[in-house]
Amino acid sequence: MSESTVHAEMPYRILGSTGERVSAIGLGGWHLGFKKVDEQLSIRIIRDAIQRGINFMDNCWDYNDGASETRMGKALRDGYRNKVFLMTKIDGRSKKEAARQVEESLRRLQTDCIDLVQHHEILRYEDPHRIFDDDGANAALIEARKAGKLRYIGFTGHKDPRIHFYMLEVAKQHAFNFDTVQMPLNVMDAHYRSFEKLVLPELVKQNIGVLGMKSMGNGVILKSNTVTAIECLHYALNLPTSVVITGVDSMEILEQAFEAARTFRPMSKAQVKSLLGKTAKAASRGEFELFKTTSIFDGTAYHPKWLGEEPERVQQVMPT
Predict the structure, then answer these.
(1) Rounded to two decimals, what is the model's pTM?
(2) Which residues contact 171 (CB under 8 A, 6 or more apart)?
(3) 10 Å Cβ neighbour count for 315?
(4) Which residues contact 43 (CB under 8 A, 6 or more apart)?
(5) Neighbouring-strand partners of residue 116
């Protein structure tokens, strides 16, 4: 990303210790690859978002069988690539599989360097160990970074804040510092298995870029009839997030994202308390945060092959 244009509709924040200047709202990649969303519409959404000031692009190797990355790659032609901070995620836990997925993402996104690549779906306590094995995925990302194929490294997950915290501990044991961490931050998270309470303070302490996601829980939080979409986005923006990533599958939803950015003002403690008070009962058991309480959002649970092989030393003791 080489341009630093000022846009009245979009505030910008610093991405942790990287010093990168990113839009407070980022464009989610998952929705852009939906079959119900015409490819030309997805390209229009991406380019319109960029022209109006969104420079953070979210994506993932596994989104919609690669369609999300392919569409974004097409949209970033014609000079758009140098206007954005491009992020994608990989599922591979082995060095071999992670390297393969990075190469595939580079081809789909039509770029020779991705600004940020994140280890996706850190959902299990064994994930950090597989990733930081000598023959694990992080070794592949470090090699890719040295080769100029990516610039920064992070991780994501949506299941349990204790697993995020453990990932940070294992990284520290390996003398590795993540540039970013992505996690659910929303009006219900504070009440149940809270990333905001457990992980967020540690990220701020370490000056790691905070990527907030699932501000509306894929729309499920809105079905609680306790808060509006704008309130959801304002709450996430009020936290020390570098970027709040939101899914967009129409021009109307894109306009909603810009409305939230335009109208956001830092919230008082009383305002935060009032908003959390409205969601406390509905949030108490995680019924509207299905990504925490069910496996329906766990792509790697449905497709374990995406993770790649276990480390060789583990394979030697596996039961046959």
Answers:
(1) 0.94
(2) 128, 132, 177, 178
(3) 9
(4) 71, 74, 75
(5) 87, 152
